[in-house]
Amino acid sequence: MHYISPVLWQFLEKFLSRLPLFPPEASSIAPYSDAFFLYLLLISVFGTMVVIAMVVSFSILYRKDRHPEAIQIEGSTLLETTWTIIPLGLFLIAFVWGALLYFRIYNPPTNAMNIYIVGKQWMWKAEHPGGQHEINALHVPTGKAVQLTMISQDVFHSFSIPAFRVKREVIPGRYTTVWFEATKPGTYHLFCTQYCGTLHSQMIGEIVAMTPDDYQKWTAGSTSGSSLAQNGERLFASLGCASCHSGSADAHGPSLAEVYGGKLQMANGSVVTVDDAFLRDTILNPTMHQVAGYSPIMPTYQGQVSEDGLISLVEYIKNLNSNYRVHQTLNTSHVETVAPAAPAAGQGMVKQ
Amino acid sequence: MSTSTAIVLPPQETASLPKRSFLNNEYGLKSWLLTLDHKRIAILYLFTTVFFFTIGGTAAALIRLNLLTPGGELVAADTYNKLFSIHGIIMVFFFLVPIAPAVLGNFCIPLMIGAKDVAFPRLNLLSWYLFVTGGCFELYAIICGGMDTGWTFTTPLSTHYVNTNVVGAALGIFVAGFSSILTGLNFIVTIHRLRAPGMTWFRMPLFIWSYYATSIIFVLATPVIAISLVLLVMERAIGIGVFDPTKGGDPLLFQHLFWFYSHPAVYVMILPGMGVISEVVACFSRKRVFGYTAVAFSSVAIAVFSFFVWAHHMFIMGISNYSALVFSLMTMLVAVPSAIKIFNWSATMYKGSITFDTPMLYTFSFIGLFTIGGLTGVMLASLGMDIHLTETYFIVAHFHYVMVGGMVSAFMAGLHFWWPKITGRMYPEALGRLAASVLFIGFNLTFFPQFIVGYLGMPRRYHSYPPEFQVLNVLSTAGASILAIGYVLPMLYLTWSLKYGKIAGSNPWRAPGLEWQVQSPPLTENFPETPVVDFEAYDFEWLANQTKNEVQTVG
Amino acid sequence: MWLFLLTEIMFFGGMFTAYLIYRIWYYPAFVAGSHWMIIWAGTLNTTVLICSSFTMAMGVYSAETRNRKALLRYLTLTLLLGIGFLGIKAYEWHDEWEHHHVPGLNFSTSDFTRVDPRYPLDKALPQDMAEKTQVYFSLYFLLTGVHALHMLIGVSILLFVIYHAWQGAYTTGHMTMVENFGLYWHFVDIVWIFLFPLLYLISRHQ
Amino acid sequence: MSAHKVNEVLDTEPTHHAEHMVSPKIYALIFGALLLGTGLTVAASYIEMGDFNAVVALGIACTKAVLVILFFMHVKYSSRLTKLTVAAGFFTFIVLITMSLTDYISRAWGLW
Ligand code: HEA
Ligand code: HEA
Ligand code: CUA
Ligand SMILES: [Cu+2]
């Protein structure tokens, strides 16, 4: 080849070296996903082959030259049932297998570390619990389950890491979660896969999976001061939350210590699990999540806290093991305890 | 070739077109634009849909050209977004949804059931005008800025964040939707009321069964997209808060409503094709379709089940996991009737006497490509797999396999099959076979690489992409140019054949359907006298007796 | 004709679905919103529509019995009742406009964040829920608006039908037009029969 | 062609050839019932019944609708086909609502 045309050769070389046929398997879920894909591929190839075999062999056997006179056949119930049952069976296996995989991918293990993702036109922002911020990049340790809690500030986006075989829609107004456990250190693609406007194709970034040691170094090297929870604490004080959620017996609101992860009895009789989405929602729409035994006096904080702020608050409440810190802030920011600062702006029209 | 073909053309030296037919009954533009004849309306539709196809196809060509290089140097990002939105909207709402029902259905249904016309000829003409009006809105929207929402109009993007001509586009679809509704209505009533004496339900060609199923979907599903578009326009124009998360609305609700129509609509796009395939397979195998009842009922089953599966487009969009389960299961169920059909067609060839004319070649490519497309659909329907595959080029490949490889192939099969009936002339057979092969090769070259690049993770609707995907994209673009030849070729030779094609005679394929028992092109009133049907569908023995006392052309 | 009505069912179906879902979500807002409906107007309108349905049915009957005069009389009555309905509806809309209850164009939550003087027992809605009354009113205007549009179309067709009936059509045995129009009219009536309780009544008391 | 076959064809015709004329008396009766229903719902809405208010109101509305459909719209006297058509319409309507609700209701159940 080489002596025929160097240009052609170069071209081919480049061509082939740029022809990946299979994405890297870089998360603990990827092998499972690929195994399932293999199954689907197999039944598809099998089904296609059966059809092709029928069509080709009949075309050869019964073409007009060989078989000038057609023999009329009505049909066959036996055959009909066979080719109803077999595909149905194969499809149902696919359904069960797929469902199991789905729940595996969308149900984070309880010990996962949490990273917040905010999507907006057209960038990704990641917020680590330690307060590190990243734009269009995400550093994660290998060998550790990482849960992403994601929200969009404007339109639908979708957070996709092909190498990890995970993807989840990022929705305005609601947290969604996805988790993965990276297995191989490396840099992988991060795509926004839901069409989100002009620069949709620029809403990309990279996932850097690093060994736990490297990750440790990275976190240490890129802290920007206070952690998320610390930010949250500050907000908790300045927004006046502490005045009602002081944890003392005569407080207007329930104590928030250790509330995360537990179950709450609601005023309308239902029982909910307190997760990130619930915390966010109660801050914005307290009336829709009335805790039993309290009156609906909590003001809405819609339009007053940014998504980042909400994330900090949520992170703070999640880590609130006792009311000690709340009392601390209470003592330091006494001004706000008199009247909750927020409702003033809440009166009248709040419209964008 | 002469031994292996079923074409029995009349002796060409003496043959002539019938003196009187629907084509030369009246002349002048007015006689076309105000016609109530279903056959002329079909031809009007043919012109308009082909017109829209060229627009959509041009957009596709630009998309593929732009994706030749990873940087997307050809057009700017927002132009690219407009291109694929135009491509999707035009191709779906103004080409594929109307093409099969309105062109082939309009032409064939009355002929096949032995009726003079459809039940409401005026309504039929009105639907064409609605369609054209909708199309004009759409063209207006495209010219005045275009729209860049994608064909799915996802809220809140379409309501609050883009500033292109979404309202115009939505209105266009809204109006065209009424055209679909009226067509569906017309067909249902026609099939119920106007069957010739003796044409019982189980003597109807399978073509009619599948059009019946299609019409049901038209009538029941289209209004839902109409209302969701109304909501969308209201929200965009005056800012009501039904889908807007900041006002307490749920943006997902729009998708529920949208897909409640659009999933059944994908079966609108395939069922007519399945009807065509049944006819063609039977004719060119010279055999009754294997398992007639199974095929007939599977059409209806597809139509019914298609209403239960819409949320499979939303598996990762934030619907609840439980409901994802339900919808995934239903999707698996709806895939089965399609499998039944595929197997029955294949089995029809068993012990047949097969010839390989152009329609049959297109049928083969339908069977192969639709099977691949459908099975990849099953992959998408499997929850865990969908997470990885959704919103990538895998989906793009899936739906082009079913829509282009499936339905467009079937339409081409049908067009070639009925071409002699419509025009009275044959298309050039050798060119036809060539075009069918070119299409098949070009198609696979275009879209098979997209499966791979999709599994690699390349997202759809991307104006530029990481360089390692380039090779596959180059292949795909190369395929698209072959594909373009494959489409332009039939356009050319079909036009050519209008004047120079061989005279076809009334039944060149020696097919058994009622439509083949009249002259081609048929009379305006279709049948000189009401036919009485005393034979089963695909009754080749009856046909053999019949041909002994040769069919006559009137006039 | 029935097939066409199927289409209509599904057309309204989309909106009813939306209504149901948001009602579950934002129950208090829907209650508060419906407190602002003018109940006498709604009741009156329901009655008007039912009357018009009755006169329509009688019109069809007169066509069946080939009684041109009666047909004309009943059709005209139907027409008047239909116009009456639209008038009352317009009055209501005007009222809602005055109260700033039209989302998107003219909306303010102030009516809902304070205690409603007519329902002193009810508490005022907290701000976040008050915002959600917009959803209620959006749906209210959509549902009634689309319904009124249907009435408007119905009235226009009715004019046409009356004109033909006046010329003596329909009373000679060919009455499909009247019959089908009757079906349409009854359908529009049925939609209102559901809209009335959903929008006006079922939250009266909480 | 045998007479039997002709019948078979005619049976599937949706027109009500053997038109059953509903007498004005029945119309008046239904009319009265509808007015009564309206009065009842309005009255019922002023009685505190908790969740039952909605049930009662919708129950009455459904009854009224059924009356209109059966008598004013002649479905009671129409062919099986018409009945089937009407049923199909309501069926899809129910499908739309219930299947959407599967999502909305079970969302609150949270993750697995
Ligand atoms: C003509 C149009 C058409 C048709 C017929 C289909 C048919 C099917 N589609 Fe497809 N689909 C689309 C058009 C169509 N689709 C479009 C346009 C989109 C994307 C929309 C967008 O987002 O822009 C889409 C997207 C789409 C999705 C959403 C993906 C996502 O967004 O995440 C899913 C998921 O379930 C899906 C599934 C299916 C299934 C299960 C079928 C089934 O009906 C297929 C049934 C057929 C077969 C199964 C093949 C025959 C079977 C055999 C021969 C048996 C084989 C034998 C053995 C296994 C032994 N489709
Ligand atoms: C019926 C439906 C239909 C048809 C027939 C096609 C046909 C084709 N489509 Fe289409 N496609 C869709 C429906 C369809 N598509 C939809 C619904 C989408 C999703 C849109 C969205 O994301 O919102 C899509 C998206 C889509 C994409 C993804 C864009 C993206 O996500 O970024 C691509 C990319 O390759 C593509 C390519 C093609 C190609 C190469 C063809 C070819 O088959 C076309 C071949 C035809 C021609 C090339 C034209 C023939 C030439 C002439 C008629 C001559 C006249 C022209 C000149 C003289 C210039 N399509
Ligand atoms: Cu964000 Cu696409
Ligand atoms: Cu679908």
What brief labels describe this structure?
heterotetramer; A: 352 residues; alpha+beta; Helix Hairpins; Immunoglobulin-like; Cytochrome Bc1 Complex, Chain D, domain 2; 10 helices; 12 strands; D: 112 residues; mainly alpha; 4 helices; flat; binds dinuclear copper ion; binds copper (II) ion; Cyt_c_oxidase_su4_prok (chain D); Cytochrome C oxidase subunit IV family protein (chain D); Caa3_sub_IV (chain D)
Backbone structural class of chain B: mainly alpha
Query: Helix proportion of residues of chain B, in percent?
Result: 55-70%
Sheet with most strands of chain D:
none
H/E element order of chain D: HHHH
- Associated small molecules: heme-A, dinuclear copper ion, copper (II) ion
* Spans where pLDDT lies below 50 across 5 or more residues of chain B: 1-5, 551-555
Q: Tell me the span between the first and last alpha carbons of chain D.
A: 64 Å
List unreliable stretches of 5+ residues of chain D.
Answer: 1-18
What is the gyration radius of chain B calculated from CA atoms?
A: 23 Å
Number of domains as seen in the coordinates of chain B:
1
For this structure, the CATH topology of chain B is Cytochrome C Oxidase, Chain A
Mean pLDDT of chain B: 86
Number of strands of chain B: 0
Shape of chain D: flat
Instruction: Provide the β-strand percentage band of chain B.
Output: under 5%
Which second-level CATH architecture of chain B applies? Up-down Bundle
Number-wise, the strands of chain D total 0
Organism (chain B): Alloacidobacterium dinghuense
Protein name (chain B): Cbb3-type cytochrome c oxidase subunit I
Family (chain B): Belongs to the heme-copper respiratory oxidase family.
Membrane topology (chain B): Multi-pass membrane protein
Model description:
The complex is a heterotetramer of chains A (352), B (555), C (206) and D (112). Chain A has 352 residues and is an alpha+beta fold. Helices cover 38% and strands 18% of the residues of chain A. Chain A folds into three domains: 6-106, Orthogonal Bundle (Helix Hairpins), CATH 1.10.287; 113-222, Cupredoxins -  blue copper proteins (Immunoglobulin-like), CATH 2.60.40; 228-351, Cytochrome c-like domain (Cytochrome Bc1 Complex, Chain D, domain 2), CATH 1.10.760. Chain A has a five-stranded mixed sheet, with helices on one face. In chain A, strands 4-10-9-6-7 form a five-stranded mixed sheet. In chain A, strand 6 (157-161) and strand 7 form a beta hairpin. In chain A, helix 2 runs antiparallel to helix 3 and helix 5 crosses helix 9 (324-332). Mean pLDDT of chain A is 79; it is low at 331-352. Chain B has one domain: Cytochrome c oxidase-like, subunit I domain (Cytochrome C Oxidase, Chain A), CATH 1.20.210. Chain B has helices at residues 29-33, 38-66, 77-113, 121-143, 157-161, 166-193, 206-238, 251-285, 292-305, 321-348, 358-381, 383-389, 393-423, 429-456, 470-500, 540-548. By secondary structure, chain D is mainly α. In chain D, helix 2 runs antiparallel to helix 3 (52-72). The longest helix of chain D is centred in the C-terminal third of the chain and has 28 residues, at 80-107. Mean pLDDT of chain D is 70; it is low at 1-18. One heme-A binds at residues 54, 57-58, 60-61, 63-64, 84-85, 87-88, 91-92, 95-96, 150-152, 396, 400, 403-404, 408, 446, 460-462, 480, 483-484, 487-488 of chain B. Chain A: Residues 110-221 form the Cytochrome oxidase subunit II copper A binding domain.
